[in-house]
Amino acid sequence: MIRLVLPSALGLALCLAAPAALAAPGIAAPPIVFQQRVLANGLKVITSLDRTTPNVTVQMWYSVGAKNDPPGRSGFAHLFEHLMFKATRDMPAENLDRLTEDVGGTNNAFTADDTTAFYEVIPANYLQRLLWAEAERMTSLVVDEANFHSERDVVKEELRQRVLASPYGRFFNLMIPADSFTVHPYRRPPIGSIENLDAAGLDDVRAFHATFYRPDDAALIVVGNFDPVQLNAWIDQYFGTIRPPAAPIPRVTAVEPPRTGPKTFTGYGPNVPLPAVAITWLAPDAASPDAAALTVLDAILTAGKSSRLYHDLVYDKQLAAQVSSSADLRAQPGLFYVTAIMASGKSVDAGADALRAEIADLREKPVSPSELDVAKTQLVAAAVRARETVEGRGFGLGNALIEEGDPGRVNSDIADLQAVSVADVQRVARKYLADDSRVVIRYLPQSAAPADAGPPAPPPPPPAASPPFTGEVASLAPEGQRQASPPIGAPVTAILPTPAERTLANGLRVIVARSTSLPLVTADLTVKSGATADPSGLAGDASLTADLVTEGTATQTAPQIALATETLGATLTAASSWESTSLSLNVLRDKVGPAMAIMADVAEHPAFAATELERVRKEALDGLDVAYQQPGSIAGFVTAPVVFAGTPFGHVASGTPASLARITRANVVALHEAWWRPDNAILVITGDVNPEEGFAWAQAAFGDWARPAAPLPAQPTARPSAAPRAVVVDLPGTGQAAVVLAKTAIARDDPRYYAGLVANTVLGGGYSARLNEEVRVKRGLSYGAGSRLTAHRALGAFTAQAQTKNESATQVVGLMRDEIGKLATAPAGADELAARKSSLIGEYGRNLATADGLAEILGNLALNGIDVGEVKLYPAKVDAVSAIEVQAFAHDYLDPAATSVIVVGDAKIFLASLKAALPGLEVIPITRLDLDSPTLEHLGGSIEGEH
Q: Rounded to whole angstroms, how far apart are CA atoms 322 and 339?
């Protein structure tokens, strides 16, 4: 460890640098080098310099989380996270977005059990302003009735979306913590409950801020491009003079008692398509010497397709549709759990027995050395990927500080993982995962509840109102009396990538561009064919083909491919979209050769074994069972058949229950033979690579891929002519309604593409855009509302979407239609237009910063016939769009009268008002939804349970 002293006017300064090399078997993880000091007022400051980026992240981590919620006020810390984005003494509400999103940055926050963290990523020349803003939020937050009620409504919508509208939201967010802990406040969910949120009052909020939002309860983390001396001076200027309150910080001292025997709990929920089960055990805190071994054990269970639970329960026995495990280690006692969402026809009791048997096997028999090495390799490779961005490094430092008490653990934890032995894994399994200390949690549909069970117990009454807050209450200063934000610094010039390309003798186009100095490489193979090539009546053929290519080749089985890939610490995934299918590899640089050999074998020689087809088909059908209970998923499925009826885009790309059942091995083989060929593919290689290396890797892996003699089939064309429709899918009992407005738009090569991109961003591209402003910010009707312009090779689509409580569905439809219409009536203001352009350019720059992001950008340019040199021109082309061009695009392509409206929710709550607003409204019960029919409705009776 290197220890240096930096000058500071306030407190002791320490500089901590990590060891030079952190290596798992065959993998090195570059350490995060950082400096740390503590101001006299107790504020911890952690900084990490990176001169290669034009950006910087500013993060403020407070040691207050859901465990600190007042009694009867679960969800309070999370509610307060939202309030921190409102006004301060010198900043009007939403001004933080002006300082971040409007200048090309981004901001967000999260609440966990032990912490609430706020983070921004901005161009480095805005660093001083963000430091000032974070100090403002700490010292002079304005909490008034308007802000409080607005954000409480937003949090309720977030709860409905994440918990009540999701088939397993109650299971994961409510039941698992509540049934696993008996005393510790970890038993309360961070997102809270509607009843507890309603019980909170303004005095609670003000007291909470005064108690916990103080310098001695916080850590400031800055990672990116900055001048260290100047940064320290700014930190001292804005934070050094903040005085902490005299009262001590209340700490959670509850001690969770040891379990004295096994327990089983059973819960029921609406819209539960497949039963689920979890088994939980109490675990140590994150700083425990056993943490590394439990983390490795967790990876052995569920990290990748070669993991035990996936291989045994999902792949081999086909008992579960989905499995997971978690070494959820926290600042105080943690939790270890395993879960299974059962496959159709399988019982939770069978799932519980299988999970218990897997854990018993870990207790009774040592894992193999090779299995241990695969788990370690995957963990270290994941750590490298997490360090690719400035915010990822900041999160690593913050988590290590809050959960383990030392930011240096972000580096030493990797060494601890490396040191885990076979004996360590068995020891912690025996110590913590004893069968007689298990809690089994069963989750079933409400229809399975016993007839004599009665209604659920009502929530306990909320506690009495808190006493009036007597401390200082901040208010927004009059405009002329507000402190001006600091000046903007000199901009840091971004270095845009320079792609090089070459075409191999077999016709494969290869594009190479450097994106990082981390030892990471992405290889992305794009086949220029997707769902538009699905034969009539076989929706999902291209998607199923993509799912199957990694599930066995002529020489390797699916488990062998998974094990070989994960032994290298690589990820290999395939996915189909409308006009393309991608096979994507991310791997450490020194493993590129063998990893790309696996990738080439998968692309060129898939076996499409009949047994694998049936297994993958069954997984897809189980996935649809779940998706058919999620309003947002159903709305997405309905959109394409409504908007693109009569074209190759007019079906569900991932398939329907009926179409997936019809697809044969011959269909899959025929689609692969027709379209998966080198002269119809693009290989993009990015990361720590130079052009000649990339071309050599491409030649070695794909040079012998034979080009068929037969000519390529003609690419599908699309001329949409369907009239707009208004459709409701009735999903009784769901906790929220999904609202989608959609219509056709332009192709990617249209000269108005950039005007359309900016127009969409003004309307719905971000927190500060018009749709979110009207629906969320002003009215609290949704967790988020936005829109998207998707430009394909043949045509494009515009969609606007939001989820809201069922009672507000009609209002949200009206608000969204109004905002879409307004964009064509007057030019956007100069400030608004500049802000939305900066948002687009900043997001683009952040995507370029990762190997995967750059590969996707270059692949899409090549797919759509755009010169890849445009990767350098994007910022200038966005900036050149005028307000008149935006208005003209909206007039020509975003007419709300030509837009279809799709609403999925509990129709009895909103149907009368929506019918009045939308004459000709079609209403389809979920039990009669038929996405293969032009009418979308199965007319011969219920289709529920067909598969």
A: 8
Can you tell me the distance from the alpha carbon of 783 to that of 772, in angstroms, rounded to the nearest whole number? Answer: 9
Six token digits for residue 405: 């008490």
User: Which alpha helices (DSSP H) does 550-654 contain, by range?
Assistant: 558-567, 592-604, 610-627, 631-643
Whether 816 contacts 739, CB under 8 Å: yes
- Give me 146's structure tokens: 């308007």
The domain limits of the chain are 2-246, 263-389+399-448, 500-702, 726-928
Three-state DSSP state, 793: coil
What's the whole-number average pLDDT of the chain? 93
Chain mean position to CA 659: 29
Alpha carbon distance 189, 178 (integer Å): 8
Tokens 């011969």 belong to 940
Give the sheet arrangement for strand 796-804, strand by strand: 785-791, 796-804, 737-745, 900-905, 726-730, 922-925
Q: What is the mean pLDDT of residues 116-136?
A: 97
Helix, strand and coil in the chain, % to nearest 5:
45, 20, 35
- Three-state DSSP class for residue 265: strand
What is the number of residues in the chain?
947
pTM for this predicted structure = 0.93
Which residue, among 83, 82, 56, 104, has the nearest Cα to 766 in the 3D structure? 104
Instruction: Give ∠ CA 771-775-780 in degrees, rounded to 5.
Output: 150
Question: For residue 410, what are its two tokens?
Answer: 């972000």
pLDDT at 615: 97
Write out pLDDT tens, residues 407-461: 999 999 999 999 999 999 999 999 999 999 999 999 999 989 998 766 666 766 7
Helix (H, G, I), strand (E, B), or coil: what is residue 347? coil
Q: Count the Cβ atoms, other than its own, within 10 Å of residue 182.
A: 13
**Terminal Cα distance for the chain, rounded:** 61
Reported as half-sphere exposure (CB side, CA atoms, 13 A), residue 306 has a value of 23
726-928 has the same fold as 2-246: yes
Alpha carbon distance 923, 911 (integer Å)? 9
Nearest-5° Cα angle at 117, 111 to 122: 130
What are 940's two structure tokens?
């011969």
As a whole number of angstroms, the distance between CA 432 and CA 334 comes to 11
Cα(849)–Cα(561) distance, integer angstroms: 29
Could you tell me if 861 and 687 are in contact, meaning their C-beta atoms sit under 8 angstroms apart? no
Q: Which stretches of 180-272 are assigned E, i.e. beta strand?
A: 218-224, 263-269
Torsional sign, CA 209, 211, 214, 218: negative
> How far is the C-alpha of 679 from the C-alpha of 509, rounded, in Å?
8
554 DSSP assignment: S
Q: In what order do the strands lie in the sheet with 218-224?
A: 2-4, 13-17, 34-38, 44-49, 218-224, 55-62, 116-123, 106-111
CA 549, 555, 560, 564 dihedral sign is: negative
- Residue 941 CB neighbour total at 10 angstroms: 8
Place of tokens 């290989």: 683
Please report which helix (H) or strand (E) contains residue 395, including its range: helix 390-404
Q: pLDDT (tens digit, 9 = 90+) per residue, 656-670?
A: 999 999 999 999 999
Confidence at residue 716, expressed as pLDDT on a 0 to 100 scale: 85
Of the CATH numbers 3.40.50.720, 3.30.830.10, 3.30.450.20, 3.90.1720.10, which one belongs to the domain with range 726-928? 3.30.830.10
Dump pLDDT digits (tens) for 174-229: 999 999 999 999 999 999 888 888 888 888 888 888 999 999 999 999 999 999 99
263-389+399-448: CATH superfamily: Metalloenzyme, LuxS/M16 peptidase-like (3.30.830.10)
Phi/psi class of residue 920: alpha, beta or left (left: φ > 0; alpha: ψ in -120 to 50)? left
